[in-house]
Amino acid sequence: MRLDEYLDPDLVLPSLKATTKSEVLREMTKAIAARHPELAADHALSVLLDREGLGTTGIGDGVAIPHGKLPALANIILLVGRSLHGVDFEALDFKPCNIFFLVLAPEQMTGIHLRILAHISRLIKDESFRRDFFEAEDSHAMLRLLQSY
Question: Within its chain, how far is the Cα of 98 from the centroid?
């Protein structure tokens, strides 16, 4: 499995501006809705906030993997973002998050959704990947890095 198969290059965001968890989720869902007009950003945000209410998706080591299921989606949508200043995402290790993988999936694609989450989890365990991703010059360098894994 390769993440770039599910990733629109325009949904690689090298410099998220938001400073809080809800603002980051809003910024990312607005970016997705701009590329996918059939998606209601407010509904996607609500689904993600509901999921965060069950437990944080800030998994530690500066990474968060917010995710949710939307019945109206036809395909999985993946967004990758980076915050240069870090965001308090209520991560399990209590450290700010800089790297975000947002996954939205149709309800009927549970298997692929779980495989993508597992792939992301394996990827971000690699300290050199996290460092190189954080230090990448721009979205093109970030995308090339994702394509190389």
Answer: 11
